[in-house]
Amino acid sequence: MDELGVRTCIICGEPKTEGIHIVSEFICDACESEMVHTDVQEEKYHFFIHQMKQIWVQKNA
Ligand SMILES: [Zn+2]
User: Which InterPro entries would you find in this protein's record (predicted)?
Assistant: First the structure.
């Protein structure tokens, strides 16, 4: 986190100011919204889950 409040979204990797924090990591509004509306069967859902797992791996490493 920098002084401007811009954080790098762990999903899209882009710097954003609006979003949510999960386990000290950041997910931008666009990705968070997309996650909510993504069908469980879609490949993208699994990508999100994969990204989320990376958080826990990092925190438990
Ligand atoms: Zn994002």
Answer: Sigma-G_inhibitor_Gin
The 10 Å Cβ neighbour count of residue 28 is 22
Q: How many domains does the chain have?
A: 1
How far apart are the CA of 60 and the centre of ligand 1, in A?
23
For residue 45, being part of any structural domain is answered with yes
Q: How far is the CA of 31 from the centre of ligand 1 (A)?
A: 4
Whether the CB-CB separation of 1 and 7 falls below 8 Å is answered with: yes
Q: Distance, CA 36 to ligand 1 centroid (Å)?
A: 13
Q: Is the residue at 21 inside a domain?
A: yes
